[in-house]
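Justification of computing resources. Each target in the renewal requires a structure prediction run like the one illustrated here; the chain below, 191 residues long, is used simply to show the kind of job we budget for.
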Amino acid sequence: MSERALTWLPASRWVRWGLFIAVAIVALGIGVHIALRGGSWSNAEERRTADALLALELPDEKGVPLRMDQWRGRVLVVNFWATWCVPCREEMPQFVRAQAAEGARGLQFVGIAVDQPDKVAQFTQELRLNYPTMVGGMGAIELSRDLGNRLMALPFTIIVDRAGRVAHTQLGPLSPDKLQGIIEPLLAAKG
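Resulting structure tokens:
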């Protein structure tokens, strides 16, 4: 193609289009990979104990420190989220419903916000969260990577069984049916 054929579009537009196409290709590849794996990163390597997660201590939105190990022995659903993350916001109401319905059976949701305390406090009040939220700021995304979130994207959820083993990890939102299918056998198991 000659240089003349390309002169109808300024160079900066070519750069922008090139970047757009590159990002679209990467996003498509990630989406295909996640779809082929069922949205889950669970594998033998990740079916490890959740000791690092259970040892975690972070403040809540008021600055009060919370220790994750206080929920040891429960089926623990730890969700990394942010107020600016649309899929996070969309899946959280189902977490509120599941906590209300299954909390007495030993289910415990805990949110870890990749956000600022004031924004987290406002959002949790708006949504009327019935489970605790820890505030990890931007450092929480790095923490999620250490726990299996290879793409460092949100939402990212880790489900831990009563024995303290990682039973499932999920990059991307959990559908209500999938969530129920994962937690029901874990709640039925007593140890």
